[in-house]
Design brief:
Elements lengths: L5 H15 L3 H35 L4 H7 L5 H9 L3 H15 L1
Helix pairs in contact: 2-4, 3-4
Length: about 100
Amino acid sequence: MAEQPEEVTRLVEAIKAFEAIEDDEACAVAVSQALAHWTKQQPHLRRLRQQRVQALKTSGKTWEEIGRLLGGISAARAQQIAAGVSGAQRRKAAARQEASDA
């Protein structure tokens, strides 16, 4: 696997820093604050990834190549990311399909 970007390393280190907080109350408060911020940032990160995947496709990469770059996901999933389809949307669509098949 390719070396992870510095930003990913810093994120992992920040999570380890939470684990290192010895005071239970301080740790719980800090983690709660981080989770509140994370919830607000997830849509932004998803949009950023979508834009960059679209740019990769426009630059000539195949869906298979993009899937490999994104950690070995399928070409179909890479296309879904470019289209802005989230995991929650995929699960809902699968549930609707199951219900209609029943």
